[in-house]
Structure formats: structure tokens, C-alpha cells
Amino acid sequence: MSRADLPTPDGGPAVVVEDLVMRYGGTTAVDGLSLEVPRGSITAVLGPNGAGKTTTLETCEGYRRPQSGRVRVLGLDPVRQRRELLPRVGVMLQAGGAWSGVRADEMLRHVAALHAHPLEVGMLVERLGLAECGRTPYRRLSGGQQQRLGLAMAVVGRPELLFVDEPTAGMDPAVRRTTWDLLHELQRDGVTTVLTTHYMEEAERLADLVHLVDRGRVVESGSPMQLVRGRGDATIRLVVTQPFPPGAPESLATALGHGTEVTPVDERSLVVTGPADASTLAVVSAWCERHGVVPESLTLGRMTLEDVFLALTGRGLAPVAAEPAA
Ligand SMILES: Nc1ncnc2c1ncn2[C@@H]1O[C@H](COP(=O)(O)OP(=O)(O)OP(=O)(O)O)[C@@H](O)[C@H]1O
């Protein structure tokens, strides 16, 4: 019997995904992905655009049937037992979800009325700044306003389990922080949250557990602290004025010695992870001098999830320009 077939008693995982494979024509969006979401946790599925996050979430939400592999949500099959799950699960989609001509507060009151013990609509309207939407119909709201309404609609029914897809995309920094606070408050009330994001800061600030996803698979899982500590606390970034000479990362790795990883980011920058400290910095600086490489910047900083992802996959999480200021 597989893990996903086991009954999920209270206290067991809220979500179990096992060897999930999902294809769109010739594109394999999800390629043998397995993950668990502990009850009561905020679990982030973090990965770059196109990694398969939304497809995985939509399968957990019952919108797609697994082509291969298994998914269990609160111990139930999200497609066959959808009716049982609907009142227990809140879903915030990446876009849409409200009628185009409806006002934000009307829509929220309508969704609240479908639930037995909804949250207070006025409180949500105020917390998420929805009063500013006034009489504007949904289709004319800004992207950020639509996002906030989507979140409010997902949480208003006091779900046991909340799926939120890129919850703060398009939100300004103040509303992003309010959203993070709201998700933490819901967690204190016992709500389990699964969120997808490609903002590593969002995962670091919010999540108890992070699944790093690349090309349809989980490449590493752990708390943000575990993921970062597992690779040394610090990281060195080297940006140079001219493209590196051929073989530069290998040559630098040899100079640094065992236990240090050198990952090229692009033709003029690289990241050193492992036991990176002031003496490592000195070795990098001496290597630059020996090889006629002129640093534009050489910095020693705290390791981030972005660095971990880069070390694991050789690629960044998101184009730098897409990362919003928090
Ligand atoms: N309806 C679809 N038809 C065809 N291909 C699709 C469809 N939905 C997703 N894909 C492809 O499947 C892959 C995974 O997409 P998915 O949206 O699941 O990734 P993601 O990690 O959520 O990305 P993003 O952060 O951009 O939303 C991508 O290559 C995407 O182009």
C-alpha cells in the first residue's frame, strides 16, 4: 500500500502527493513529484516559472486528475471525493474566480453566505484594503485588488486547508506584509496553508516547510533554516567587469578546496557556497588577481533560499527584475 493510500488521521499530513506525473501534449509539467504537507503548517512550493507548481496545486484542488501517481487531501481523493472536500478547503486561484460585473464586497458576502461559520466580512474588507474597491466591478479592479479579493474569498469560509497560488503577486509591499500576517493568524487558528511562490523571501518569511521544485520535481525539502544551514550559513557573490576566462569556476573551486561549491550565474557572476567566510573571501580575491579578473563587486552575505536553489539546479528562481521589494 502506498503512502497516499493510507488513511490520514487528524495529525497526519494534510496533503500527500506521490510520484505525480502531469503532461500537456508533449510538455511534461510535473515529472514524478512527491511531497507532503504537515497539518497546521504553512508549506511553500517554491520554484521558478514553469516548474510545475500551479499544475501540482490544481491537481490537489481536484481541478485535474493525476495522469500518473496519487494525491490525497485531508485523506480524501480530491477528484472523486470533491463534494466532501469543498466545504473544508479554501482555494485562491492565480487569476479570476469572481463574476466580472460584481463588486468586491458583494462577491465576498455571497461567498461568506455559502459557509456555515464564515469569518466576519467587514473585518476581511478592512484588513485587505478592499473598501477602496468601492462600487468598481470586478473586471475593472487592478491586478492587486483582484488578488486581495481572491484571497479574501479563499479564507472567508474558515477552511481547514488553504491553497494559495502566488498569493502576493501584483501586491504592493504593505499589502504583501498584511497578507503574510493574515496567513500567520489563520495558522494560529489551526489552518494548514499550501502556497506556491517564486519569491524566496515569501517562503523564508512565511513557511515552516519549503519544497524546492524544479522541472516538475522536488529537488529538496526542509524548513528554510534547514535548507540554508545544510549548505553553510554564508555565501560569496563575485561579479566581474569582463566575462570570465574559460574554466574559471573549476579553477576557482580548485583554489578554494574541498567542501566549497562554485556555481556560475552568468558569464560575469558566480556564487560560492559552503564554508564561506573572510578567509574564503581572501582566496577568491587572490584568485582574481592571479587570473587577471577584475571584480566589480565581491560580497560575503547571508545564505538565502535563492542561493540554495542555485547551488542545486544551477539556475535562479526568478529573473531579478521580477522580484518585488518587500
Ligand atoms: N494548460 C496548459 N497547456 C499547455 N501547457 C501548459 C498548461 N499549463 C501549464 N503548461 C506548461 O506546463 C509547465 C508547468 O506549468 P505550471 O503553470 O504548472 O508551472 P508553475 O511553476 O506554476 O509556473 P508559474 O510560476 O509561471 O505559474 C510549463 O512549461 C507550462 O508552460
Automatic annotation (TrEMBL):
Keywords: Antibiotic resistance, ATP-binding, Nucleotide-binding, Transport. It comes from the Bacteria. Gene3D superfamilies: P-loop containing nucleotide triphosphate hydrolases. It is found in: Cell membrane. PROSITE patterns: ABC_TRANSPORTER_1, ABC_TRANSPORTER_2. Transmembrane segments: none annotated. This is ABC transporter ATP-binding protein. It comes from Nocardioides lentus. The lineage of its organism: Bacteria, Bacillati, Actinomycetota, Actinomycetes, Propionibacteriales.
